[in-house]
Amino acid sequence: MIYKEQKGKLMGERKSHESDLKERIGLMDKIASKHKIELSLTQTQASTGIETQQTYATTSRVSLGGNTTFTAGDTTVDTAHMTVSAEDMEVFEKALKTKEEDLRDGLQNFKDKSREEEDEVQNILNDLTGKQRHVEADREKLMKQQREAKRELQNITSQSSSRSRLHKNDIDDAKRAAARYARERDEANQDPRIKSIPLEISKISERMRSIQVELEEDKTTLSQLRRCSDISNEISMLERQKEGDVEGLKDTISDNSFLLQKFDAYPTLRGDNYVNTIETLADNVRIKHENTREESDRASEELAQLQQTIGEKSALLSHNKRSLETLKAREAALCADDRGVQKIRRVINAVRNFEHQQLDTGVTVVQNDMEPQKLLEHLTERIGEYSAEDTPESIARTMKKLKKMSKVKGSGGQILDIICPCCQRSMDTNEVMMFDATMESLSDPIRSELIQTDQASVGKNRSALRNYETWRKIVSQSMPDYLDHTRITNEVNDLEVSVSNGEDELKPMQDELSAAKDKADELQNDASELRQLLDVVNRLRDDANRIAEKTRQVASKRDELSVMAPSAEGRDLKSMEMDFDAKNNEKDELMRKNTKLNKDLTSLNHRIMTLGSQATKAEQQAKELEAKHKQYQEAAERKKELNESIANCIEEDKKLQEQEVPIRQKIRAKQSDRQRMRTVAAEEEIRLNRLINEFSNDVQSLNSLTERIDRYLESNNEEEIEKLDSSLADVASSTREKENALKEMVPELQALQKKVSDQERHKKTIQDNIKLIKALDNVKKLRDELSVLEEELENLQGSNALNDDYASAMSSKKRHMEEKHRCEGRRLGYKDQQRNLKRKLLTPEYKDIDERHRVKMIEYETTMIAVTDLDKYHNALDKALLRYHGMKIEDINKIIRELWTLTYKGRDINNIALVSGAESSGGTKAARSYNYRVVMTKGNTQLDMRGRCSAGQRVLASIVIRLALAETFCLNCGVMALDEPTTNLDYENKRGLAVALAQIIANRAAQHNFQLVCITHDEEFVSMMKNELSTHTGFDMPEKYFQVSREEGPDGKHYSKINAIDWDEI
């Protein structure tokens, strides 16, 4: 086999080599014809016979330009059967190399030529582009000059529009006003009162200084007299207060005599020294209070400890009662018809009924109170019994196995003998035929008595098997519910006992708690009364100290009064006070005269100053108007110059555009030529590159074929093939000899196998005889032992009692075994329950449940704290919002009052105001709303404006409120829009609205983003606005206002048109 494989491999390589030769000649022919290369080949034709191998060759030189045929001698040969010599290949490779160099030189020459042509076009294009850029630079310079001139013109125009137009008459009016103000100022400076008023002020001041000296002297004497009078009054008042304090002290002791006598602390007062007696009383009461308070604290601690114990026991008892109710509810749920407990009971009844009907004895081991574990064991045992029944298929398989066991096979797999599968005895031909017939009849479902007998009970057994499997499945699935029910029942019993014990323990503790409460209340009452008494004693001590202090003050005051002796020159306190008052009145009258003169002098100076500032301002304004008029004339001249410059720039730009057009046309033409040249050159370059790549690929393919052919020629495969042919012939001859020798040895081998088989059967028979003899000897020995034991049994006394003991022991053993099985079942149930609980604890729902519970409790507590804090913050914010609303409403009402007074000219409404009220809906804090209403005031009476005002008053009120809201809330948004604000307003109210708007504009003119947009059809109102705005200073008047109208267009449609109208045209 190895030689054949090697030969096949070598023959494949030979065929591949011949294919490569043909392919190389074809490829060379293809390259020669495609790329026009001369190809010279040497023809060699080979002819091979079938039985012999003979080769003859005809050689000639041919030149091919393609795959053609030619004639050599009398034979026509196709180019596909030619071979290529090494000389031919060398010549062809040189031709290929020369061709490749020619192609690459042609490509490089084409690239150089294309680059030169493109450079020439690019030079022309660069010249044209330079000219275009020069023209564009000139145009850009003109455009820049034009933009600068327009920008300067726009600035001049905007500056002119921002200033009102000045006339020569305005300047003359300003100069005349300045001269008038200067004349009035000079007249005010010549007023004679300016010199007389300071002299009068000087005389009054001198008199006031002399009166002040006399007042200071009288004031000192009067102070001494008043001091003596005050001391006498203080002595009398202190004595009256002392008497009152003594009476109060005695009254306090009398009012609290019950407490003082209860605690044996009633004081005895002697003489005026009450301090020592009260101090002793205070010390005794304080000591008794401290002792009683300590006893009360100890009783309170004992009471708290007892209450804590009772609380814990009560909480535990309540928890046990709640757990008991929960477990009873779960127990009732587990006993429902669709749960496992009832299912197991129904299965027990079904099994009992089934076994009563199916079993021959009519007795079943299944009891009504049977444990589910024992029931599972019983069902499993029954399923095993019914599963062990034979089926026809199993009987047929058994017959096949017996037939297979009867065949004795050799090492090669051939059948050597047929034996009995039971006794291993050899069978002759007749016995083999009978054995086969018997096996076939037993395997045939129709003829086999064994199968027919078994089929009679197959249906019944399968039905019972299905029933037992169904019951076992139900019991297995219901086992968790049964175990939970058993566990819950035990827990309910334990909890009932625990609840009963807890109630028994709690009752005496509650009695003890009642007694402790009474004792603690009594001590607490005593401590409270002593605390009250201590407060009373402290008040008594304060009263005693106050009485002693007042006694000391009276003595001190009397000593001080005896020492003081004021000098009043025979005048008493009353006459001194009358003189002092008269001098003060004179001084006040002089001060009023002085003040009036100062006011008159200040008024004169202020008038002079005002007239001076007005004159200065008028002169400055006249100069400014004259300077503005001069600037306006200069700006007009500059605008004219700029317009001429812009016109010149436009003319120059048109000339440059005319020069630029032919240059652009030439550039586009040259760019088109350059692009066309690039496209043609790229296409030609791609064609030459593709030709070179195809040539290189063909050469590479030819080189690859040549390398494969050379490798085959160097491998000596032909010699290997001849050697393999010789080796295959030798192997075939040796194989035939071995097969002949093997055929001669077959009869001898069969005889030896039969002899070995006979010896095995003889050996087995001898071994069976030995086993039989040993078994007979063993039976004899056992019979002798049995007879000896029977004799000993007859000799024993009390055998009946022993039998009874034996029966009793067996019964006890059986009972203990049953108990063991029950315990084992419960243990397995508890283990299953334990495993289930452990699995539940490992599930994501219960994993790390303690830690998660702790975290959630922390989150709950922190959330509640946060809710409390947020409630506080909400209340504080709500109060702040209410205050903010009140403040803003006050600001708005203040502005409304000012604007209403300024705009409304009627006398029926003094003022209007906004009134807000906070209302809560649904009782929730988040749903609070604020309702505002407008009220009008006349005197001290307020009424709602709704339904009580005219249309004009309503419009004016809405405008005033809008303006007030804008002033309050929209300081950063400077746009204010009014649409038809004068609707339903009379002349006076329109004028008042114009005054108010003008004042708002004047006040907010400094705001950089303020704008007022007013839309109206009322030209009278526009005129009022103009007049009012002209009276204010500090801002520039708008030059124009905008008039919107509708005009019909050429297409018959109406269009809106906006015109800017000068204020002077109104």
From TrEMBL:
<dbReference type="InterPro" id="IPR027417">
    <property type="entry name" value="P-loop_NTPase"/>
</dbReference>
<dbReference type="GO" id="GO:0003691">
    <property type="term" value="F:double-stranded telomeric DNA binding"/>
</dbReference>
<dbReference type="GO" id="GO:0030870">
    <property type="term" value="C:Mre11 complex"/>
</dbReference>
<feature type="compositionally biased region" description="Polar residues">
    <location>
        <begin position="154"/>
        <end position="163"/>
    </location>
</feature>
<dbReference type="GO" id="GO:0000794">
    <property type="term" value="C:condensed nuclear chromosome"/>
</dbReference>
<keyword id="KW-0175">Coiled coil</keyword>
<dbReference type="GO" id="GO:0070192">
    <property type="term" value="P:chromosome organization involved in meiotic cell cycle"/>
</dbReference>
<feature type="coiled-coil region">
    <location>
        <begin position="506"/>
        <end position="722"/>
    </location>
</feature>
<dbReference type="GO" id="GO:0007004">
    <property type="term" value="P:telomere maintenance via telomerase"/>
</dbReference>
<feature type="coiled-coil region">
    <location>
        <begin position="749"/>
        <end position="799"/>
    </location>
</feature>
<feature type="region of interest" description="Disordered">
    <location>
        <begin position="145"/>
        <end position="172"/>
    </location>
</feature>
<feature type="coiled-coil region">
    <location>
        <begin position="282"/>
        <end position="309"/>
    </location>
</feature>
<dbReference type="GO" id="GO:0043047">
    <property type="term" value="F:single-stranded telomeric DNA binding"/>
</dbReference>
<protein>
    <recommendedName>
        <fullName>Rad50/SbcC-type AAA domain-containing protein</fullName>
    </recommendedName>
</protein>
<dbReference type="GO" id="GO:0051880">
    <property type="term" value="F:G-quadruplex DNA binding"/>
</dbReference>
<dbReference type="GO" id="GO:0006302">
    <property type="term" value="P:double-strand break repair"/>
</dbReference>
<dbReference type="GO" id="GO:0000722">
    <property type="term" value="P:telomere maintenance via recombination"/>
</dbReference>
